[in-house]
Amino acid sequence: KPVYILNGPNLNLLGQRQPEVYGRETLADVEAACGRLAGELGLEARFRQSNHEGVLIDWIHEARGEASGIVINPGAFTHTSVAILDALNAFDGPVLEVHISNVHKRESFRHHSYVSLRAEGVIAGFGTEGYLLALRRMATLTGGK
Ligand code: DQA
Hints:
single chain, alpha/beta, five-stranded parallel sheet, 3-dehydroquinate dehydratase activity, EC 4.2.1.10
């Protein structure tokens, strides 16, 4: 079963948007790096991005029975979306939350995460490397299934 790697709003602009905060790598670069590492780990990665809350929720529903685990960077929905939390609570496997920036060093409205109420682990402030660290952890949590 694949690991779903889901990305929320504005992450399609990665590399162009506030590079001083999020770096110069694009989301396509991150997807390629995740694909390479997944191969090494014996995992399959399904990497997606949407600016729409409902689309992300549909993908989380699809993950039920379809995905071994979910790595999610919910973008700003992290701080607002009870609906994404509810969807993740309907998923059985491990959930890991990734933030490229260190949200705790930023505005106080970024300090609270609804998704953290569900996530087994959270990575913040490791840049795009956070996705790779989360994938490694996912390999451990799913036994490479
Ligand atoms: C983010 C942090 C969020 O606060 C922000 O809204 C984002 C990206 C991160 O990866 O650092 O869009 O999730």
